[in-house]
Amino acid sequence: MPMGHTATAQAGSGGLTATEHRLANGLRVVLSEDHLTPVAAVCLWYDVGSRHEVKGRTGLAHLFEHLMFQGSAQVKGNGHFEFVQGAGGSLNGTTSFERTNYFETMPAHELELALWLEADRMGSLLTALDDESMENQRDVVKNERRQRYDNVPYGTAFEKLTALAYPEGHPYHHTPIGSMADLDAATLEDARAFFRTYYAPNNAVLSVVGDIDPERTLAWVEKYFGSIPGHDGKPAPRDGSLPETIGEQLREVVEEEVPARALMAAYRLPHDGTRACDAADLALTVLGGGESSRLYNRLVRRDRTAVAAGFGLLRLAGAPSLGWLDVKTSGDVEVPVIETAIDEELARFAEEGPTAEEMERAQAQLEREWLDRLGTVAGRADELCRYAVLFGDPQLALTAVQRVLEITAEEVQEVAKARLRPDNRAVLVYEPVTDEDATEDTAAAAGDENEEAAK
Amino acid sequence: MTELATMDFHSRPQAGDAKPWAFPAPERGTLDNGLTLLRCHRPGQQVVAVEVLLDAPLEAEPAGLDGVATIMARAFSEGTDKHSAEEFAAELERAGATLDAHADHPGVRLSLEVPASRLAKGLNLIADALRAPAFADSEVERLVANRLDEIPHELANPSRRAAKELSKELFPSDARMSRPRQGTEETVAAIDSAAIRGFYEKHVRPATATAVVVGDLTGIDLDALLGDTLGAWTGSSAESRPVPPVTADDTGRVVIVDRPGAVQTQLLIGRVGPDRHDRVWPAQVLGTYCLGGTLTSRLDRVLREEKGYTYGVRAFGQVLRSAPDGTGAAMLAISGSVDTPNTGPALIDLWTVLRTLAAEGLTDAERDVAVQNLVGVAPLKYETAAAVASTLADQVEQHLPDDYQATLYRQLAATGTVEATAAAVSAFPVDRLVTVLVGDAAQIKAPVEALGIGEVTVVAAE
């Protein structure tokens, strides 16, 4: 039987609370009540992502995610989409390096339907999975790859930079979309084996957030999910540990038909879940988050050498996170001009650290981003799952913003000094070529995409 | 081979009792300076959304200066009488706020989002931007150069490139709508701070502006806050600009924008049709959803879920510009991308879907699911303050009553299968569609010509 404990609201949680429960088959359940709007979000995180894929089968986790929408024992064909949308709900699934998530946001009175649907595919997907859906979704995913990466300028930058930043053989060396060759090679039996290995109640966390009655919700969860057998035997993902810094500057120059020169770089940063990662987030925000950041002021406003310049953070728990630099040059400006300016700004920041006002701005920005994420039931459900799956404690979602606000300027300076250095980055340079001498097909603005979605 | 599952199965659960939900009704008022104000309290929404609409439509841009409204919109956040451009950006971010501004056919729109605890600060900044923008020469020069740098990026993006070509095809060449919203290299290069200030002085004033404020306003004295901020903005009185009618040529034809080597073809198939003032709108929304609103709609059922030609194709109706007298128009279109070798087969299937719809109509089951979705998702769709503010602002911009959205939900629920079919068929007539294809002409031209969907011309990508 489910057992749970009730958490009281903690400081900095905005009054939100969550309770945790575990079914006998190992399914972890997180519930959070909020009666402001008559909606309820269901989110299910499976602890499997592209880092679990093996050589020759990149893209399988994401392709499999698509297959989860192709029917199960009691749900015919596209029934999952039809039932949810017909009930006034919205839904999707996404695959990243570290997890696969599925979510439905429903009018509150249709919550039970979403639970029934998720349980049906968790327990019985293989009774419906066939060659026809495999072949069809393989084509759909290949077209997804073309649309989002191959047919837009700079579209494969993320893939190239990831491959540089994580060495050959590392579980994060390839991105969730996978390669065309591997998508072609995946078999129905691969998909079946993937399901049998990773899709089990004891490898998942279910969160339900919104206008719910927790007792009744828990009874539904027990009714629909409780009889799905748990199973062990999931292999641990390959070891993602790496030295704290790269130790040298890695570099690739891409000559492609793109509209302008670009300088992109990935810095190796602390793992998600650590104070140092939050400090890095603040450092990147001061340096390259928004239009008052140091890089924007220097490159776009003062030097006027760039059309856009910014930093982003790809938080990862099972491998070092990545600090993501993206600069598109202005006019005929050459890349070394940009690179010199960036190195100067990063060195100055490491030397001086952030000003008090920069800290205030960066913390205010990150605080608002958290308010946005926790401001919808779907966003809250996803964050609760994230902290439960990656860090073992969903309550951490409710206090995440508080932890960012506790970081000191000294910690921000320290992480910048240690990590934002030329010998700790992989650099990708784009040099435009004209149509005639292009060596590869043109590929755009996908930049920091790291998720694949089913629709 | 199938596998038997070992779980206990239960039959599909029945829905519980629906809880009442209605699209929020705003409170409307006017400040002393003539600014129209809509406010709406949304409990729990800690990030407040503020939208400001300015009666500065693109067709008001002086000849040869396309893009002046866009540069003006961007220049609002580049300094005021109190702050330099860098300081202004810093003050916004210090308040945890974001401020976006963009110019479109109906007018210029500023969107502020700020935590409720810092609403005063956010309102101060947006009011300063509107009341006393600096429009400094150097900042405008930078924005112009920046905009010129953006243009090649847009032309290289297949969906942006397709949209540009469709506008050029549909609208008469002397109509502002035929040209890019944010200007061309030639017109943008001609913009300077004097042009920005001239446009501002002619078209921006509180008397013809509207502000929409939505969020958790508990404990906030909004009237006092507004009095010190947007209420302190002054300007002459003026009538709203008359809205010119929209005309378009939807003779069936095909334009291929050539991108040699492209692995996919971007499709944009469109024409112009009724806007929200027309009684057909609810039926058109419903019919368009059945045609291509989601991956279980008719187009994706075939093109994606049966054939695998695409990641997804959507049909939609998007208001271009509305007038109080109902002479406005919406773009009705189908868009998506398909792999290059299957471009011909995908278009054959697409036209077959349209012909079948016209011949056989929608089913009652399709209509029911569409209504349940369109009406049922409302509480989800309008969970955030920003979503509510945006729709309220759309209503004002389109000269619709404040209860339009609430009424629309009732009308959708009352729309039958026959009406939805008729609306979809007249929205997407098979011989009155302009098809833009951004792709490899050498590979797709012949198969497209064979379809007989109109004359095929090929243009260069740049």
TrEMBL record, chain A:
GO biological process: proteolysis
Keywords noted in UniProt: Hydrolase, Metalloprotease, Protease, Zinc
InterPro entries, alphabetized: Metalloenz_LuxS/M16, Pept_M16_N, Peptidase_M16, Peptidase_M16_C
Ranges of residues in domain Peptidase M16 N-terminal: 28-167
GO terms for MF: metal ion binding; metallopeptidase activity
SUPFAM superfamilies, alphabetized: LuxS/MPP-like metallohydrolase
Domain Peptidase M16 C-terminal per the UniProt entry, residue ranges: 186-366
Region (Disordered) location: 431-455
Family, per entry: Belongs to the peptidase M16 family.
PANTHER family, A to Z: NARDILYSIN, PROTEIN YHJJ
Full protein name: Peptidase M16
Lineage of source species: Bacteria, Bacillati, Actinomycetota, Actinomycetes, Kitasatosporales
TrEMBL record, chain B:
Domain Peptidase M16 C-terminal: 191-374
Originating organism: Streptomyces cahuitamycinicus
Pfam families reported in the protein's UniProt record: Peptidase_M16, Peptidase_M16_C
GO molecular function: metal ion binding
Source taxon at top rank: Bacteria
InterPro entries: Metalloenz_LuxS/M16, MPP/UQCRC_Complex, Pept_M16_N, Peptidase_M16_C
Name of the protein this chain belongs to: Peptidase M16
Domain Peptidase M16 N-terminal per the UniProt entry, residue ranges: 41-170
Region (Disordered): 1-22
